[in-house]
Specification:
single chain; 81 residues; mainly alpha; 2 helices; transmembrane; transmembrane helix
């Protein structure tokens, strides 16, 4: 009796694993293929305030410096009661 129950348990685990693997195969089959139609624009404008001004490291440095100065001023003001 114990051997039969053990065998049924192993068969159930095998069937469950098979069903899970088939479900994974079906889900993967639904994924869209890679889009290989990529258009890359390599012509960049050198306009500092143009459409690509966020990539200018000088502006980031100036912004960080201003932020640090504001933080220092607020911290010093809080210390002088």
């Amino acid at each position: 009796m114990m051997i039969r129950a053990n065998l049924l348990s192993k068969i159930q685990i095998f069937i469950l694993a098979l069903v899970v693997n088939l479900a994974i195969v079906f889900v993967k089959a639904q994924e869209k293929g890679a889009d290989l139609k990529v258009d890359i624009n390599v012509n960049k404008d050198n306009d500092m305030m143009g459409s690509d001004w966020t990539n200018n490291p000088l502006l980031w440095m100036i912004g960080a410096l201003i932020l640090i100065i504001i933080i220092v001023l607020v911290a010093r003001k809080g210390g002088r009661k």
